[in-house]
Amino acid sequence: MIDRYSRPEMSHIFSLENKFALWQEIEVLFAEACAKQGKIGITLEEARWIRQHAGFDLAAIEEIEAVTNHDVIAFLTNLGQHVDAGVSEGDPKPSRWLHYGMTSSDLGDTALCCQITQAVDLILAAVRKLGESCKRRALEEQGTLCVGRTHGIQAEPMTFGMKFGAWAWALKRAEQRLLDARALSAARGALSGAVGSYSSIDPALEAYVCEHLGLTPDPLSTQVIARDNHAHVSAALAGSAATLEQIATEIRALQKSEVLEAEEPFTKGQKGSSAMPHKRNPITCERVCGLARVVKANMQVALDNVALWHERDISHSSAERVVVADSFIALDYMLAKMQWVIDGLVLYPANMLANLERTRGLIYSSKVLLVLVDAGITREEAYAIVQRNALAVWDDIQQAATGLSFRERLEADPDAASLIGPETLDAVFDPWSFLGTTSILFDRLKKLEF
Fold first, then answer.
1. CA separation (Å) from 27 to 34, 70, 75, 100, 317?
2. What are the pLDDT digits (tens) for 27-85?
3. Which end of the chain is more exposed for a tag (fewer CB within 10 A), N or C?
């Protein structure tokens, strides 16, 4: 991921420095396990020496790889140089115990799973923080009246707190998907040899290393940990990105000049357009929507990586070196930006009320329909009365004609007026008549924990 959309902590997880540090720790742990369990000839003293002298040099590894064209061998060569430094001439070299019976994927896959679990933990913390902010704002705005829209068209009254609440629940689901992916697919390790048969490695050594890394041994790895695990993680990331995209898209729609019910923060000194100084554009939400496309698209790559030849090939390797890091880094950035947006989201309740009345009462049509049914006529008859009056109001609105409001047309319609009295209309044309039981939504929300 380019620096523009990268944050230091997440970027470090996918740096060469962190990857090689994990590789080093795996090799050291394996040597210690061998010494403690007496599986091969390495002594405890040699294992301690390896622990004390292990190290690597990025530049040196790059130079070696330029010749070997193999990153694991380049790393092991350099690690061995560090381990053997200081060993007296003629004494056995402790580096001979490094990577004993292991294959490249044992090292690379286990380290990658460590990186993924580290990254998932960062994402989880950010998802929880954003979810808490949405919950807080939902409870703050539970009484802020606005109009709900379906198909982009005004439907019925609601409160803005319901929007924040829906986002909080979506983030809770994202959290659960990430937890599932971490537990079931991410936190795995494998030290089982060339085709996963433990031909030169005792499974107890694998268990020791995995335990110390916070991983679970993969039950059967055919040299590589199966990539449906990585696809599971990618799906959780894509789902989280889609949730952020959903939130950002709604804010963008509500920030349109013709609507202007909400607006992402606009900081002091910020400029909206190089040509039009009046512009306050929803650029952060647009950026989140754009990056969501990257994370979602990367999921397809992860799915394509599942099908490998026989026990293993490396067609997945080049692709996942890009998409795994990019997905985590992009989502981490997106979460930070949406945190800023939600915490600073500006609301315009007066505009919400103005928009609520923009259709001259048409949003109350569902209540009128039910009242007419209650008065004794069929639903079809009631629907005809409501629709002909509603469409007449809509035509006036589209033609910018003054005309009558929906209520006034009903009062002038003999069929409607004979069935609905003024007091009933007063109750029907009260936006809060739609919201008498919404308290249950916020009671549920209060119990939501991240």
1. 11, 17, 11, 9, 21
2. 999 999 999 999 789 999 999 999 999 999 999 999 999 999 999 999 999 999 999 99
3. C
The reply to whether 104 belongs to the active site is no
Which of the following is catalytic: 88, 151, 274, 310?
Answer: 151
Phi and psi dihedrals of 229, rounded to 5? -65, -45
Phi-psi category of residue 449: left, alpha or beta, with phi > 0 → left and psi -120 to 50 → alpha:
beta
Q: Which one of 199, 273, 315, 433 is the catalytic residue? A: 273
Query: How far are the Cα atoms of 255, 268, 279, 289 from residue 271, in angstroms, in the given order?
Result: 17, 9, 8, 20
- pLDDT digit string (tens) for 321-345? 999 999 999 999 999 999 999 999 9
Q: What single-letter DSSP state applies at residue 186?
A: I
Q: What token pair was written down for 338?
A: 């949406």
The answer to whether the pTM exceeds 0.90 is yes
Strands 216-217, 188-189: pairing is parallel
Catalytic (active site) residue 70: no
